[in-house]
């Protein structure tokens, strides 16, 4: 029991204001490197300003989104690999904005931990700044919360918040999608940031050696393939979206191909995805084999090698493919839109995704 005359400090309770101030100072150059037209302020204030007119907008609609990294973060923490989860955080937010036709303008992060480790925090925020530069959005602020007793030693959590803009009338709603539209896919960089609770369960149950070369890629460690950051599609997609060449976009996150594509379809439109249309990535084949995962479960859990799906008019398909390939994307033939109940069918023949027979998985709604 303490003396009644003891003088307490915030630091004795586990919160170091000095450490927080030092972190803000250290990340200043990282934040400054993300500045863009419309955002040229400094961090450390009570909020961040953004000027849409300076960014070139005349009558914009604002589009906002927030997300996290899921339990991919736990895998990064457990292996002391903090440098790219910030990219994942930005990617999960900005990819959700571009599917609505919006250009990401500014980003804010939330970093929460029990005991602030500035070395770790700086590595994470450097990744966030990198992601912002890839997406062309400004990191205008954030919150670092040191909360003793809330997290296990060494653990932290992340959340991201992004605001974008699209000129009124140019937003993507999916209402132009109709039977006959072509579905194109953009290759993913790996697992991205969904399905990691299953990945971690497999790693534990199967005793994976994460620091050894991957069976499907001997030039890389298994942990490197698993933590490969989520691909950011903004800069490649924005020009074709603004030119009116894309009628809908689906970011393939939780729910996989099966459940994300219907989110951008109008009533009466059904997506048919032919899994024979692209090669299953080695990492996906490895996960499926390790977990004896049925093809339908793969289609609703992982991106299966496709991080973004585009619905385009057949007349525009070739020019969209060419422009995206010129922008550095790998474009895949995914399927088509047919008349039917709003939803998605993923199907393939025997041999694809290790299937012993022809198969299909259906999601309606």
From TrEMBL:
Compartments (UniProt record): Cytoplasm
Q: Which SUPFAM superfamilies match?
A: PurM C-terminal domain-like, PurM N-terminal domain-like
* Superkingdom to which the source organism belongs: Bacteria
Kindly indicate whether the keyword Cytoplasm belongs to this entry: yes
User: Any one Gene Ontology biological process term?
Assistant: adenine biosynthetic process
Q: In which pathway does it act?
A: Purine metabolism; IMP biosynthesis via de novo pathway; 5-amino-1-(5-phospho-D-ribosyl)imidazole from N(2)-formyl-N(1)-(5-phospho-D-ribosyl)glycinamide: step 2/2
The EC designation for this entry is: 6.3.3.1
Ranges where the PurM-like N-terminal domain occurs: 61-166
InterPro entries, A to Z = PurM-like_C_dom, PurM-like_C_sf, PurM-like_N, PurM-like_N_sf, PurM_cligase
Q: Where is the signal peptide?
A: none
Instruction: Indicate the segments forming the PurM-like C-terminal domain, all copies.
Output: 179-342
Any one Gene Ontology MF annotation carried by this entry is:
phosphoribosylamine-glycine ligase activity
Q: Which GO terms describe its cellular component?
A: cytosol
Q: What keywords is this UniProt entry annotated with? A: ATP-binding, Cytoplasm, Ligase, Nucleotide-binding, Purine biosynthesis
In terms of Gene3D superfamilies, this protein maps to: PurM-like C-terminal domain, PurM-like, N-terminal domain
Catalytic reaction(s) noted: 2-formamido-N(1)-(5-O-phospho-beta-D-ribosyl)acetamidine + ATP = 5-amino-1-(5-phospho-beta-D-ribosyl)imidazole + ADP + phosphate + H(+)
Which family does the record assign?
Belongs to the AIR synthase family.
HAMAP family, A to Z? AIRS
* Name recorded for this polypeptide: Phosphoribosylformylglycinamidine cyclo-ligase
In which organism is this protein found? Qipengyuania aquimaris
Native organism taxonomy: Bacteria, Pseudomonadati, Pseudomonadota, Alphaproteobacteria, Sphingomonadales
Gene designation per UniProt? purM
